[in-house]
Amino acid sequence: MEHLREIAKIAEWGIKGDSARVRAYLNQLIEKLGQAGDEKSVERLKIVLSDTPNAIQTSGLGIHSRLPVDGESRLSLADEETVDAANFPIVLDRETHTRIEEFIEYVGKADELEAHGVGMAPSLITFGPPGTGKTQLARFIAGRLKLPIITARADTLISSFLGSTSKNLRSLFDHVSGRHCVLFLDEIDAFAKQRDDHQELGELKRVVVSLLQNLDAMNSDTILLAATNHEHLLDPAIWRRFTFRIPLSLPSYEQRVDLLRLFLGAFGEGVDVELLATLSDTLSGSDIRTIAQDAMRDAVVRKKNTADERRMVFRMLSARLKADVEQTDASADTLNKVQSINPGYFTGRRLAHIFGMTESKVSRRLKKQGGKS
Ligand SMILES: Nc1ncnc2c1ncn2[C@@H]1O[C@H](COP(=O)(O)OP(=O)(O)O)[C@@H](O)[C@H]1O
Ligand SMILES: [Mg+2]
């Protein structure tokens, strides 16, 4: 009987209840039938593939958890997780939000798009400064797609034996091929970054070429996500492989308000979020999260229901001014620096409130400082 191998595999994994493997072998069968010119069967099976929901969510516990390892170190080349989008909420500006929703919708309707000749490679890259939510966004997308996310480990993939890097890339891409999953190349520039050592340049070029070859051989079952802090370091050919290119920037005032509300949750009750959002200008979402978590930890051990606003104010000032700012340090210099963050907002009255002193004292100190300079 023709195609018995695929059919037996589909039956075996169907009985064992591994939807991802059933789909993978079904895909192989479809491919073979396509090669044999049996278009009718191909169409029929494609409908089964797209219209049948998975019986169970295959988690990292199945056969797939045997992720490929580096030949030398035996360390895993990737991590696999199944995530719930609700655990990875993301604050985005409106335009970015729209584009992400568009990507998710296109991936969900891939077959339909394909049928009309407007299919696309399901790939998306995010870029921008550290701490702006690039890694978070990849998890969010995987959660929304209800697909396992396989995150490549650049540190293991980039073998100290440079010749092994291409081999590692191939094992990883072989592993995901035919699997309905998200492959996430976090900090993708690590694969394409130039090194000072000229002897290694040729080898690194080969790594880029090998990455490109692997990307080109991917089938559209695997959703490709990537992120980078250094988009200018990325090889332009790799950059062009991504259908969606999404910039993430430091959060705007409105986004900082949303982030603070998100991070503080019930601990934000009665906290002046507008003040904190004003103060946290130029900080990243990650910085804001660190400060919010510190305040929540403090509230928990002090058995308080609310985060200490003043504590957050001073942590933010310290982060902004890149120096420790103490609540007690209301020196003319500190007052001046804080005021210069946003002179319209940090009036004498606000400064007096923040530092717990009278307004006239604040203005006296500021005047003295102004006179000195
Ligand atoms: N735009 C954002 N929306 C929601 N959370 C964010 C955002 N930016 C940063 N964070 C928080 O900061 C943490 C670190 O962000 P991360 O995604 O690792 O940033 P990046 O990958 O861009 O360096 C996240 O886990 C998340 O809690
Ligand atoms: Mg990251």
Provide a quick synopsis of the model.
By secondary structure, this protein is α/β, with parallel strands linked by helices.
Mean pLDDT: 88
**Which CATH class of the largest domain applies here?**
Alpha Beta
The assigned structural class equals alpha/beta
How many helices in DSSP terms? 18
Taking pLDDT < 50 over at least 5 consecutive residues as the criterion, the unreliable ranges are: 56-64
Descriptive report:
- The protein is built from 18 helices and six strands.
- The chain has 373 residues and is α/β, with parallel strands linked by helices.
- The protein has three domains: 4-51, no CATH class; 63-247, P-loop containing nucleotide triphosphate hydrolases (Rossmann fold), CATH 3.40.50; 253-372, no CATH class.
- A six-stranded mixed sheet has the order 1-3-4-5-2-6.
- Helix 2 runs antiparallel to helix 3 (39-51) and helix 12 packs across helix 13.
- The termini are far apart.
